[in-house]
Amino acid sequence: MSLEPFIYCFVARGTMILAEYTEFTGNFPAIATQCLQKLPSSNNKFTYNCDHHTFNFLVEDGYGNFPEL
Fold this sequence. Notes:
- There is one protein chain.
- By secondary structure, the chain is of the alpha+beta class.
- It has a single domain (about 10-69), classed as Beta-Lactamase.
- The protein is built from one helix and five strands.
- The chain has a five-stranded antiparallel sheet with strand order 2-1-5-4-3, covered by helices on one side.
- The radius of gyration is 12 Å and the shape is globular.
- This is Longin domain-containing protein.
- InterPro entries: Longin-like_dom_sf (IPR011012), Longin_dom (IPR010908), Synaptobrevin-like_transport (IPR051097).
């Protein structure tokens, strides 16, 4: 069983992306910015599926973590 790689990952405070990583090309920062505007600020975990991608969010103490698989 092989693990799927992270396609894009970022850490944000509020709606500002503080750090990001990807080895792929794509519109990931634009998607991340749109998603950040819709996430609640409360501590929580969210998973969204869109265009055959899984988007996982972890919001904790005002910081958002977004690894996309």
